[in-house]
Specification:
By secondary structure, the chain is α+β, with helices and mostly antiparallel strands. It has one domain: Aminopeptidase (3-Layer(aba) Sandwich), CATH 3.40.630. It contains 6 helices and 9 strands. The chain has helices at about 30-40, 50-60, 65-70, 110-125, 140-150, 160-175, and strands at about 5-10, 20-25, 70-75, 80-90, 95-100, 135, 155, 180, 185-190. The strands form 2 sheets. It has a 7-stranded mixed sheet, with helices on both faces. Helix 4 links the parallel strand 5 and strand 6 (about 135). The relative contact order is 0.19.
């Protein structure tokens, strides 16, 4: 089954300040294993290793980890507890990629903080009209989907059965009135 896809059209980027007790910084060389450890908390398999970093980050054209990958860190210790990557594909499409938070840091709205930060970065890098930022996710990542919908991402109907999957998911989380888009970013209807 194909992943769910969502687009952001830069219509409304929530301005979410960094949660007290945390700060955001760019990833630095040598922190690959820290990134992998965070991603093992539900995004990658529990036994994922450096190959996860290599394929997810180094394997992407136009992605510069030092510029495009971020950590949310605890202010007390400086320890990274969450990560997000936002970059622009060679064709001009933005991408929100590999969003993860360690189990012990959940409940601090760090997903919203990271999404706001990455979207503002992409907006600055993507001038002009008709800009789109894409992300993919899975039906079972319900808290992530809720965060993306609250962050003004729109479901994309790009494959057979997507509309039914989105309607079922939105019923489950009780979020309605969301505009659905096609692959070109054009409106196709509303999830009621």
């Amino acid at each position: 089954m194909k992943q769910l896809m969502m687009y952001h059209t830069f219509d409304r980027i929530p301005d979410v300040p960094v949660t007290d007790g945390f700060f955001i910084r760019n990833w630095q060389p040598g922190e690959e294993d820290i990134w992998v450890a965070i991603c093992r908390c539900g995004l990658c398999s529990p036994d994922a290793g450096r190959e996860a970093w290599n394929s997810a980050i180094l394997g992407r054209e136009n992605l510069v980890p030092e510029k495009d990958t971020f950590f949310v860190c605890r202010a007390e210790t400086g320890a990274p507890v969450a990560t997000i990557t936002g970059y622009v594909h060679p064709d001009g499409l933005g991408d929100i990629h590999m969003v993860a938070c360690s189990f012990e840091a959940r409940g601090h709205k760090l997903g919203e903080v990271m999404l706001s930060h990455a979207m503002k970065k992409l907006k600055a890098e993507m001038p002009g009209e008709d800009r789109l930022v894409r992300l993919t996710t899975d039906d079972f990542r319900v808290p992530a989907v809720v965060g993306y919908l609250r962050g003004n991402f729109h479901p994309v109907l790009y494959d057979e059965g997507m509309e039914e999957r989105w309607r079922a998911l939105c019923d489950k989380i009780d979020i309605h009135g969301t505009e659905m888009l096609d692959l070109d970013g054009k409106p196709t209807g509303i999830i009621l």
